[in-house]
Amino acid sequence: MRVVIFLIAALFCFSCGRTVAQKSVKHHNDGPYSEDLSALRIVYPDQDTAKVIKEDNTPMPLPKMDITAKLTQKMDSIAGYNIRYNTTQGFRILLYSGTSSAEATKIRVRAYDVVSNEPVYDIYTAPSFRVKIGDFTERVDAYYVLSSLKNDFPNAMVVPDQINIIKK
Questions:
Q1: Predicted TM-score of the model (pTM)
Q2: How many domains is the chain partitioned into structurally?
Q3: Would you give the distance in Å from CA 91 to the centre of its chain?
């Protein structure tokens, strides 16, 4: 019974399919219809030529397309805008986080001895002290320095933080 219902439904679906109509082309008495639109098209000068012809058929040089002055002005305005900002989102290595001021000072002194080329930050946010090291824009750079610190600071970890932008 299911097969019969399926065949009837399939026959109904295929019989109601869209029929394709043939495209008809209108013909005038002389032949197929054609229309010339070349008079309405915009004619552009040849891009390869170095000169444009004036109305009196004398050559006129093309205007220079030099954007150096505009680009320099825009870059100066961007540099002036960016000079106001001293920090950005980056990464630092957290060496210590706790409530002991003496322990934080001891860790900070030891961090200066181990890594002398990175800045060390001693941050107090009541009630905890934190010692962080470095200003890294990329997490990979922070992990590279962290690998050299793991022997002296086994609990150190990379944390996202606002870092100081180093102006050169």
A1: 0.51
A2: 1
A3: 20
